[in-house]
Design a protein that fits this description.
The complex is a heterotrimer of chains A (128), B (160) and C (281). In chain A, helix 1 links the parallel strand 1 and strand 2 (26-30). Chain A has helices at residues 10-22, 33-42, 61-69, 88-97, 109-118; strands at residues 2-6, 26-30, 49-52, 78-83, 101-104. Chain A has a five-stranded parallel β-sheet, with helices on both faces. Chain A is of the alpha/beta class. Chain B is an alpha+beta fold and 160 residues long. In chain C, the strands form three sheets. A five-stranded parallel β-sheet of chain C has the order 6-2-1-7-8. Chain C has helices spanning 5-19, 28-41, 47-56, 60-70, 82-98, 116-128, 144-152, 157-160, 166-172, 184-187, 221-232, and strands at 104-110, 134-141, 154-155, 173-176, 179-182, 190-194, 207-212, 235-243, 256-261, 264-269. Chain C folds into two domains: 5-70, Chemotaxis receptor methyltransferase CheR, N-terminal domain (Chemotaxis Receptor Methyltransferase Cher, domain 1, Orthogonal Bundle), CATH 1.10.155; 82-269, Vaccinia Virus protein VP39 (Rossmann fold), CATH 3.40.50. Mean pLDDT of chain C is 91; it is low at 277-281. Chain C is globular, with a radius of gyration of 20 Å. The chains are: A alpha/beta (128), B alpha+beta (160), C alpha/beta (281). Chain A binds chain B through residues 9-12, 14-15, 18, 55, 83-87, 105-109, and chain B through 18-19, 21-23, 26, 71, 74-76, 85-86, 89-90, 92-93, 96-97, 99-101, 103-104, 108, 112.
Chain lengths: 128, 160, 281
């Protein structure tokens, strides 16, 4: 399984990569939505999961989600927002745009794994 | 324009604790121990600025040793493996996360800047046009760490 | 200043006794960090003096402050998921048939702690009961502090990250400052009260479903038996009892039989065995 980690913070990308690697995902990373879309365009195998920050330069997470959901080729990707944006209206917007789940920063590793388990992305027995 | 804001020290302390629980002390064995010492020294700091419905800054400040420890914990490395880039990244992200949580408690229409990181010690007050309205001060494994909120004194927005 | 072993032991015993919180060794610094603001808030010069004073003169209010400060909420919503799936897939469809006359279901979250289980049950019922049906959920706990907290129904950001689908977060919660509070429309179906499961329980209308999860593990066999007997009296004859993932009535109380419930097990009163006040379904 493959996961794409999209955040303009290198430190946060490292945390997220660590978690998904623990769950047996192969991780790829991008620093913003534009870079992520460019990477996806070149991939033959679409990632199963994308963890997406909201506030990023060039293309923010919401725009990325909207773009992905408009592309039939990327239909199978599970999209999870991972962000400090936590107003009710924003969560609603993200879900309406097509994000499947939403994790508010800061998150514990256990909480992230639980969210991914809700989406059926955690092999049984891998819960920490 | 800066509105009277209800983000008290308990709220700030809770946010800081959640960052510790999530990234810096997931085992719950090395917390930030409160000292309430506003004058404790610091050597490095990072901050985000907030504009819009509220103007001010959210600032992380600590000794270099504490900052390196934070970077090591965040990135799951040893302290001596932490590079300047790692340090800068982590301090910036800490300011971003805490600032983002503070923003969530402000009236709608607040905007967060990109984080700024200062890795060199500074003796002067960091925000001369702002006043400290709230702060969490403590020791993390014996090293000073603080998170504070500064409200801009100016009545008008900086940019018309 | 670090907590002495004696101080840590005192606090550990207090929270274990009053709120079933188990403080592992290694948590001394965390306990200290959490108690410093408590001592300061009550005007004590230090944590040492605060605790010494408490040992000399019991003070329920200060006790509760300690418990409150030490409750790390690592409780998930829909904990273990499978019992809630079982409720949706197996139990509710059956109840919808058997309770058709009253169109009402009653659930009990025994040892409700800070309320995540009770409110998770409420969300499950809200989403799966047919229109025109009503429900009542009672949460009970031995700790006054927990009952108050559950009634407040307010949870922090890290707490709502735990096992709660975002779509349900926005539907059933409202932001209150840095916290999230369960909406009134859900809260009005859930109530909390103090109760000690090891003592004779007050008489009340029996329940259709009881969640008694991760409570029995704290007791010895004789007490487990007492609790199960007490609980049986408040379970409808065709009611369902859910225990924690590692718990069972087998070897403890023969009056229950284990049945499959979706991908997990539940316990029902063995036919012929004494149970809650005999009522028609």
């Amino acid at each position: 399984m493959r996961a794409m980690v999209i955040d303009d913070s290198r430190a946060m990308r490292m945390i997220l990569k660590r978690i998904v690697t623990k769950l047996n995902f192969e991780a790829v990373e991008a620093g913003d939505g534009r870079e992520a879309l460019d990477l996806l365009a070149d991939m033959t195998e679409v990632p199963d999961l994308a963890l997406i920050d909201w506030n990023m330069p060039n293309m923010n997470g919401l725009e990325f989600v909207t773009n992905v959901r408009a592309d039939p080729r990327l239909r199978e990707m599970t999209l999870v927002m991972v962000t400090t944006e936590s107003e009710q209206s924003q969560i609603v917007r993200a879900l309406a745009a097509g994000a499947h789940e939403y994790v508010i920063k800061p998150f514990t590793e256990g909480a992230m794994i639980e969210k991914l388990a809700l989406l059926g992305l955690v092999p049984t027995g891998a819960n920490s | 324009m800066s509105v009277e804001v209800e983000v008290n020290e308990n709220d700030l302390a809770e946010m800081v604790e959640q960052v510790w629980m999530s990234y810096l002390d997931p085992e719950g064995i090395s917390p930030l121990i409160p000292t309430y010492d506003e004058n404790q020294p610091s050597e490095v700091h990072s901050s985000v600025s907030i504009t819009g419905s509220w103007t001010g800054h959210v600032v992380y400040a600590s000794s270099t040793a504490a900052a390196r420890r934070a970077a090591a914990a965040f990135l799951a490395m040893e302290v001596d493996e932490v590079s300047q880039e790692d340090l800068s990244d982590v301090l910036g992200e800490l300011a971003n996360i805490i600032g983002g949580n503070v923003k969530a408690m402000l009236p709608p229409g607040a905007l967060l800047s990109l984080p700024q990181v200062m890795l060199a010690p500074e003796n002067t007050t960091v925000y001369p046009n702002a006043e400290r309205i709230s702060g969490v001060y403590g020791l993390w494994e014996g090293e000073p760490v603080s998170v504070s909120m500064w409200q801009s004194r100016s009545e008008k927005k900086e940019e018309a | 200043m670090t907590l002495s072993q004696a101080e840590f032991a005192f606090v550990s015993q207090l929270v274990r006794r009053e709120a079933s919180i188990v403080l592992a060794p290694g948590k001394e610094y965390l306990v200290e960090a959490r108690l410093i603001p408590v001592a300061r808030a009550v005007g004590a010069p230090s944590v040492t003096e605060f605790l010494a004073d408490l040992q000399r003169r019991p003070n329920p209010q200060n006790q509760r402050k300690i418990i409150d400060a030490l409750t790390t909420n690592e409780t998930s919503w829909f904990r273990d998921r499978e019992p809630f799936a079982a409720l949706t897939d197996v139990v509710l469809p059956e109840l919808v048939k058997s309770r058709a006359a009253t169109r009402k279901v009653r659930l009990w979250s025994a040892a409700s702690s800070s309320g995540q289980e009770a409110y998770s049950l409420a969300i499950t019922l809200q989403e799966n009961l047919p229109p025109g049906w009503s429900y009542e959920i009672m949460g009970t706990d031995i700790s006054t502090e927990m009952v108050k907290r559950a009634e407040t129904a307010e949870y922090s950001q890290v707490e709502v990250n735990r096992g709660l689908p975002a779509s349900q977060l926005v539907q059933y919660f409202e932001r209150v400052g840095a916290h999230w509070r369960i909406t009134q429309s859900l809260r009005r179906n859930v109530s909390f009260r103090l109760m000690n499961l090891t003592a004779p329980l007050p008489a009340m209308q029996p329940f259709d479903v009881i969640f008694l999860r991760n409570v029995l593990i704290y007791f010895d066999v004789a007490t487990k038996r007492t609790v199960l007997q007490n609980v049986a009296k408040l379970l409808r004859p065709d009611g369902w009892l859910f225990l924690g993932a590692a718990e069972t009535t087998i070897g403890i109380d023969d009056n229950y039989e284990r049945v499959a419930a979706g991908r997990t097990s539940a316990y029902r009163v063995r036919t012929g065995a004494p149970a809650g006040a005999a009522r028609r379904g």
